[in-house]
């Protein structure tokens, strides 16, 4: 089966391992006999309607993020519709912020997001930097990663977070929650090699993408020894030195 | 308030502390005296710097500052007694320690951490400033590239009298150039990359945000760029490297062209990034009035900076150690290795201490892939060995070829065991892993410790 991936702004939002996350999706799809077909969706490119099973948007530095923000707003409608129709979506760091309604920067300028996730973000004066560990009880799994963001993301009442913060700052350093999920869209501050060391999330995204493509399939587990070891080290790091106020 | 101690007395006391630290076996003790002095009297650093009869110069960059400063020191040494922080201690404390040790120096030559540049230059008031490049590096420590660039702009504005020597090939750094200074760059499309690398950072016009067009991209985003929208382009070059020849792992040569004339430079160090380092050091030395032939000879004499590209004989085998610390630097190490014949066995050490960057995500931005084809065995080591193993596994290296050996010493031994007698083992360590590996090799008597050499 071909899984069609739409990678948004790979030339702009590519800091830290965003291509690594794609490589993990590709390798894990291949191990189950599927193929990833990755389409780069850049500035002014149209969003294909109904033919993308999984969207990905990564993180960037403030400058790059500002450059794409205006363009993304023009893509809001087809992206929201795709998620309503069951397409999977992973948004990391800067990309996560842009999926919310708005981002208010330090100078008081408001950057419009696309309102795909029920949240908004306000720049803080202290960066939240460090290892993070999340408990995702909805999946019976944990996520280990690294966060580095000045934005404080505030979820709307009733919005589903991605996980409860076991160690680290999370969305705003105060709520005790990190990330957001809506249907098959997942947003998170955990950047970098999120999927390599948390392969269960990669598999969940692939299953959702396959379902969108019309294939209901429970993916066979892989050996994942290196993955488990990397996860354990990363989780231990978060427990011993995750950020806190 | 405590009355200030006389400077000489302070200096003697903190020097003694450094000696004690070494005697107590607590490593190099290279920054301890400086840290103490800074605590005791921050202004003392300014006073010590003012005692240098020829003043000081500062060298900064994300990549290559240690090598560039060491090259400049090699060029300058026959002309002037230099105080140089050659063990890489490049924060205020390291500069202070060097100032304390160098009692008869005439000129200070300081490699400075890019984040610490404003603080150090505020105290040193250097007469010349060499600025090389800005790449994404340890965002957990330095913050975003734009923040570092803004600090550099402020530092430069605060030194209106200083001679600025800048790389024109980096859009951010080149924009700092000013009248009376010097701009250097590379001009040889034959050694350009076919396309911008993944780790290129300043890809968008710093004035208007449009993607630059590159006539040639050499290392990351360094090259001959032009904005098709507003016209912002690489400034005119005063000192240029042309006709570059890369000789695998054995060295590189290029033609150095400046107002002073033209000469062929032969380097014992490999790789295009070392051509950049040499070009920066040459530009600085020329700006300080060193004759062109002496620049050429000094660069020709230079062998290696601490841990950057070191060959160490260990019994009947050799170690080749290349420091990796961020995507752009690791890409160049990879490219150099592959041009010299890709290694069959490599020990790659990934630590995540503060000096390495606690965030190890950067390894996913490195183009390690050219190494894969020739790699028979990867020994992944360091505190984040498993993470590194994953990077290579998802890069396409067969998992059966990867061994995880978290202990550096055990990994070194395993690597040596996999290397045939007479062969060379490639080590790619991050900063603290490099220090630890050097300590292990020194403990076995194969290389002297840096504090013994620097003393």
List keywords for this structure.
heterodimer, A: Rossmann fold, six-stranded mixed beta sheet, 7 helices, 12 strands, B: 455 residues, alpha/beta, UDP-N-acetylmuramoyl-L-alanine:D-glutamate ligase, Protein-Tyrosine Phosphatase, Chain A, 2 domains, globular
Explain how this protein is built.
The complex is a heterodimer of chains A (245) and B (455). Chain A has 245 residues and is α/β, with parallel strands linked by helices. Chain A is built from 7 helices and 12 strands. Chain A has one domain: Rossmann fold, CATH 3.40.50.880. In chain A, strand 1, helix 1 and strand 2 form a beta-alpha-beta unit. In chain A, helix 1 crosses helix 6. Chain A is globular and about 50 Å long. The mean pLDDT of chain A is 93. Chain B is an alpha/beta fold. Chain B has 2 domains: 295 residues, Mur-like, catalytic domain (UDP-N-acetylmuramoyl-L-alanine:D-glutamate ligase, 3-Layer(aba) Sandwich); 146 residues, Protein-Tyrosine Phosphatase, Chain A (Alpha-Beta Complex), CATH 3.90.190.20. In chain B, helix 4 crosses helix 10, helix 6 runs parallel beside helix 8 and helix 10 packs antiparallel against helix 11. In chain B, 54% of the residues are buried. The C terminus of chain B is likely disordered. Classes of the chains: A alpha/beta (245), B alpha/beta (455). At the A-B interface, helix 1, helix 2, strand 7 and helix 7 of A face helix 13 of B.
